[in-house]
User: Fold this.
Amino acid sequence: MAGESIVQGGKITLRALRHVYDYMGMTLFLSAAWFLAGLIPAWFLYTVKVELSSILTDAVFIVLASLVLGPTSAATYQMASWMVRGEYVLVRDYFRAYRRHFKRAVGLAAVLLLILEIISFYLRFFLFGPIPWLQYFAVMWVYFLIAWALMSQYAYAALVRRERTVWQTLKVAALLALDNIVASLVVLLAGGVLVVLSVWLAVLLVLFLGGTLAFLHCTAYEVLVAKYGGSDGPMGESERETIDG
Assistant:
């Protein structure tokens, strides 16, 4: 069973890379837009947060980073989701998707960042606390961090695929990850390798990271959801017409 899931995760990764190859031009556009409009501002805010470390700056960081990173991620994943399903897209669809998902994407990013901040705080506390035996509790928070990463990789794919609340989106993403834990770990590993390569070869960070991650996660979402009886609907034609209209 685990072997089949590993193979499935490998096939998902290869299919996603095929999508990247087939839509190379759009991948470059999506990655550049995500990097310039989302990642760079969020990274700048993070460096300020680290310098002025306090509860207030942490809260300000979550709010401002969500405003820049959330909508750009949602628009990127929406475009990737359409292309994974074989739909024809134009650059202008990116900006329409950006406006369409803005509020829910900001809310989703804020919740994900808040959860990450809490996990990071307790992980640091138990790892570097004054009492050595408390370090054993850090293992539990490492598992929480892995669970957060597994859930996060499906969060935006679920958000753009159907009109859901933020809570419903997180629930779907978490259940999908937990019910397909081995395949999800393979996808997470593939994404981690991509991130490491992008940091090492900085040009990939600009040219491929955002779009490739979106294709990887949207492909995984579509493949895994199909196990439960077909399409996740209805972020299909009726929703598309709303965006296009």
Summary: Residues 2-244 form one domain. Residues 153 and 217 are 6 Å apart (CA to CA).
